[in-house]
Design brief:
Length: 472
């Protein structure tokens, strides 16, 4: 038995020494590749990810190698190096996702692509989320909020789950406009079935969440296909991103040119809903926690929101406008600081398309490269006392390339203005009409996959006692 164990041990050691013996291994970035096959995956998933990154950054510097989830990786935590990967040499680093994610969302969604196809789609999606395009959604989003909040009154809710519902309803309007086609309810139902499989093991076996999600995905494509054909046949393209992808201008006018195929349209609609929902809901959940934990800050934000509310009352009980949302300076800084502190997208994945010379090191072709947004956002060098939640730090703009909650370069987020707008509208009505209390003692963070307060932040919601004159 002992000789066998010894032999096994020696074999393991040999593998450890040989596995990453790249011909130019002395040029690779410093760092440890961990154990054969598993690399440092267990360490990343059992330790607090913040300490995993910071321990290595201290030991090896801003660029270090490791081995995660079966892939050799280079992690990057300096703003300059992140800029090289995401902006100046972006063509050498393609986006990369697990194949199961690509299958579920749809392989033609823009974030899986580089080059002309990606730029063409990016232009269309950006056009659909420009401030001028989203201004008219203020009242639609407000209606969603005004339907949702009364259902929270005097109840205990799971903040994350409720805000996912909110972000989903807003994403549906962004995708399809507010036209209520027959297919919309079915699309909502099928998307929710698909979503249950997003974080599942990609096991294509009867009864697994993955198999069920893929079945929902197929039906979703068919239903989206029917809606696309219906809107194509009629002279009305409707509103939202779908209208833009169909080649209209969002107001129903047709422009026949370079049409996208129905499956390209469907994959990108699903992709945008996917990109919009959990990100926005997680950020909002953190905002509710930070405001709950800092009474003085909440009072100051209340003052800002109450002033706008009172103005609406004075002006005949009108609804919220785009201009009102531009006057929420402190609330906007709370959003900015939450995006920094919570860094819900802690990092992103790229893959070197060829052997790349990088900051004096060599990154072999096929290696994953991860710009670590969270580590940069938590560097005391760029954000003094980084663990302190302090919106006033955004009274002056952050140093270039140090603040990237929406990414940077060609793949940066086209939905950033939409996300901020929907957060402002929800906060306005929540803060002026209600107060909330976190339930339970649970502290800490859960990852699913984005970092959120443990248990999704259960809260109890009440109408505000000193509620200001309500609108009719
Ligand atoms: C607070 C909420 C949000 C955060 C923190 C966020 C963050 C990000 C980040 C960091 C990226 C870049 C990923 C990378 O470089 O690999 C990204 C991309 C993207 N986001 Fe967002 N996002 C948010 C909300 C939204 C919303 C509301 C939409 C749509 C309406 C959206 C649509 C997209 C799309 C389509 C991409 C892919 C862009 C491309 O590959 O060119 N996001 N987002």
């Amino acid at each position: 038995m002992l000789p066998l164990l010894l032999l096994f041990g020696l074999l393991l050691l040999l593998l450890l020494c040989l596995q990453w013996r790249h011909p130019n291994h002395h040029l690779l970035p410093p760092g440890s590749m961990g154990w054969p096959y598993t690399g440092e995956t267990f360490k990343l998933y059992t330790q607090n990810p913040n300490s995993f990154f910071s321990i290595r950054q201290k030991r090896y510097g801003d660029v270090f190698k490791t081995h995660i989830l079966g892939c050799p990786c280079v992690m990057i935590s300096s703003p300059e190096a992140a800029r090289v990967v995401l902006v100046s040499k972006a063509h050498l680093f393609k986006p990369t996702y697990p194949p199961s994610k690509e299958k579920m969302i749809g392989p033609q969604a823009l974030f899986f692509h580089q080059g002309p196809y990606h730029s063409r789609l990016k232009k269309l999606i950006q056009a659909s989320f420009l401030p001028s395009a989203i201004k008219p959604s203020v009242s639609q989003i407000e209606n969603i909020v005004l339907r949702l909040l009364p259902s929270w009154d005097n109840s205990q809710i799971n903040t994350l789950q409720q805000l996912k519902r909110f972000a989903f309803d807003v994403a549906m309007i962004s995708a399809f406009g507010d036209q209520q086609d027959l297919e919309i309810e079915r699309i909502k139902h099928l998307y929710q079935c698909l979503e249950k499989g997003y974080n599942s093991m990609p096991l294509d076996l009867p009864g697994t969440p993955f198999r069920k999600a893929m079945k929902a995905r197929k039906l979703l494509s068919e239903t989206l296909g029917k809606l696309i054909e219906k809107r194509q046949r009629s002279n009305e393209y409707g509103g939202g991103l779908l209208a833009v992808l169909l080649g209209g201008d969002g107001d129903g006018d047709k422009v026949e040119k370079n049409k996208l195929s129905n499956s390209q349209i469907a994959d990108n609609i699903i992709g945008v809903i996917f990109a919009a929902q959990d990100t926005t809901a997680s950020v909002l959940t953190w905002i509710l926690k930070y405001l709950h934990d800092d009474h003085h800050l909440l009072e100051a934000v209340k003052k800002e929101q109450d002033a706008i509310f009172e103005e609406r009352v004075r002006e005949g009980g009108r609804g919220l406008t785009w201009d009102d949302t531009r006057r929420m300076a402190l609330t906007s800084r709370v959003i900015q600081e939450t995006l920094r502190t919570a860094s819900v997208l802690s990092f992103t994945f790229r893959e070197a398309v060829e052997e790349v010379e990088f900051e004096g090191y060599l990154i072999p072709r096929g290696w994953k490269v991860l710009p670590l947004f969270r580590t940069i956002h938590h560097s005391a060098h760029f954000f003094p006392h980084p663990e302190k939640f302090d919106p006033s730090r955004f009274e002056v703009p952050p140093r270039p390339n140090t603040y990237m909650p929406f990414g940077n370069g060609v793949h940066s987020c086209p939905g950033s203005e939409m996300a901020k707008l929907e957060i402002l509208i929800l906060l306005h009505h929540l803060i002026t009409g209600y107060r909330w209390k976190v339930v339970g003692e649970e502290s800490g963070i859960q990852y699913g996959p984005f970092p959120v307060p443990k248990g999704g932040l259960p809260i109890k919601v009440f109408s505000r006692k000193n509620k200001i004159t309500s609108l009719n």
